[in-house]
Amino acid sequence: MIALIRYCRGYVRISVRGYAPERFMNLCANRAIVLWELNGHDGFYTMCISLSDFFKIRDIVHKTKTRVAVLEKRGLPFFLQDVRHRKMFLLGVFLCSAFLILMSQFIWAMEFDGNQMITEEELKRYLEDEGIRYGTPRHFFSAETLEKGLREAFEEITWASVSLQGTKLVVKIQEDILPDTAQKQELSKFENGADLVASCSGTVVSILTRSGIPAVRPGDSVSRGDLLISGRIPVKNDDETVREYLSVVADGDVILETDYRVHLSCPYAYQYKNYTGREKSRKFLAIGSLRVLFPPIRKNFARQDIVTQQNRLCLFGQLDLPIFAGSQTLREYLPVDARYDTDSAKKILLDKFQKIIAALEEKGVQIIQKDVRIVEKADILTLEGSLKIQLQGGVWQALSISDTAKEQETAQN
Fold first, then answer.
1. Which of these, 336, 327, 284, lies nearest to 306 by C-alpha position?
2. CA gap 218, 389 in Å, rounded
3. In the list 97, 168, 331, 390, which could disulfide-bond 109, CB 3.0-4.6 Å?
4. How far apart are CA 413 and CA 243, in angstroms?
5. What is the largest CA-CA distance in the chain?
6. DSSP letter at 231?
7. What InterPro entries does UniProt report for this protein, alphabetically (predicted)?
8. Is pLDDT above 90 for 244?
9. Residue 60 and residue 28 in contact, taking contact as beta carbons nearer than 8 Å
10. Percentage with pLDDT > 90 across the chain
11. What are the distances in angstroms from CA 257 to CA 53, 215, 219, 390, 413?
């Protein structure tokens, strides 16, 4: 802080020599004149003194019979004096300041926090529908209105906060991550009721009905699309005749057992990239979609990978500008033909098979039995897998209004 104050006020670096330079420094101290960065020997000293104090030492110099010479001029007053006659420099400073002030009035970056089920692309698409995109004026929208709109547009969002940090729009949300959130959202689509039908062919292991009328029993074989739980509930008269049908969203747990086939292959012949070590690098400056490369590379490699690194220009940690600076590195490679041995090819196939099993288990599928067979041919190795699995086998199918109307008419007749 002291250094900044001295720079703003201006100071000079002087040399003092003569009959009694030590007496010169003592008199300066008696008159509260501050000297710093003091160096010297054999009657020759250098030191710094503020610009205002420099004009107070004339009588001290006369009394001590010393000679003072200015070695350097430092500080803002001297800088302004130097640039006063440089009109183009002052114009550049003015235009640069005006550019920064203008660019700071727009949104040039977006940051999302707290989203798990909702992707950033969905949030950006919603903001674009509301007229908010890169380059939108900062005061174009109301944060309170946008927060309310986010909660209404996405049922998963229970809390939203929108704020501006410089030129960056920060959207923080909190989602309802209860397991039945997605199910509630899907059920809300069926206003006229829905049936629960089989998602695949298999055998019914168990059925638990929460709403609707069950159409199958454990041990029954079903095909894809067959009715499992009906969403049409008959309302009967006293004589057991159907008076009308009520439409509900059928709901329940139907466990189906089915076979899941896996077919994987791994050719023995493959290619890999052998990097030669030859590289070409170039810097670039990007403003929006415009990218300027320097120096330009006139001739690329026949086969190459491009590695790009870039950073957004951010001033004072707050002003994110649509200006990117970075570098591109072109790495030459040659394709090399190679062959897997049998053990390596088997390992690749088994790793892929394990990934499929892990993905099924992550979805809640229970694997009852596994049967794997590896077949070796002249140029390819194949894996034939058969899994016996149990899964939730019901999906909703909306009731058609015409079918409901026909049933109502039949019941009345």
1. 327
2. 16
3. 168
4. 9
5. 133
6. S
7. YqfD
8. no
9. yes
10. 32
11. 95, 17, 10, 4, 41
Q: Whose CA is closest to 200, among 397, 396, 398, 393?
A: 393
Residue 115 and residue 120: Cα distance in Å, rounded? Answer: 8
- For residues 354 and 312, the model is more confident at 354
CA–CA distance from 333 to each of 98, 277, 284, 412 (Å)? 47, 8, 23, 78
Assign 409 to helix, strand or coil.
helix
What tokens does 359 get?
A: 């993905």
- Rounded CA-CA distance 214/228 in Å is 6
Angstrom distance (rounded) from CA 123 to CA 111? 10
Mean pLDDT of all residues in the chain?
85
CB neighbour class for 254 (10 Å; exposed up to 12, middle 13-18, buried from 19): buried
> What share of residues in the chain are helix, strand, coil (percent, to 5)?
30, 45, 25
Q: How many CB atoms lie within 10 A of CB 80?
A: 11
Work out the burial of residue 24: count CB atoms within 10 Å of its CB; fewer than 13 is exposed, 13-18 middle, 19 or more buried: buried
Q: Which residues contact 157 (CB under 8 A, 6 or more apart)?
A: 118, 150, 151, 173, 174, 175, 176
Q: State the average pLDDT over residues 248-253.
A: 89
Residues 6+ apart with CB under 8 A from 344: none
- Does pLDDT of 18 surpass 80? yes
User: Residue 100: is its pLDDT beyond 50?
Assistant: yes
* CB 127 within 8 Å of CB 143: no
How far apart CA 33 and CA 13 sit, in angstroms, is 14
pLDDT tens figures, 121-168:
899 899 999 888 888 888 888 888 899 899 888 877 888 999 888 888
Distance, in Å, from the CA atom of 193 to the CA atom of 234, rounded to the nearest integer, reads 14
Per-residue pLDDT tens over the stretch 381-408 = 999 999 999 999 888 888 865 455 445 4
Tokens of 99: 């550019």
pLDDT for the residue numbered 247: 87
Of the candidates 280, 281, 285, the residue with the CA atom closest to the CA atom of residue 326:
285
| pLDDT tens string 63-82 | 888 888 999 888 888 877 77
| CB neighbour burial string for 153-171, b if at least 16 within 10 angstroms, e if fewer | ebebbeebebeeebbbbeb
d(CA 344, CA 266): 10
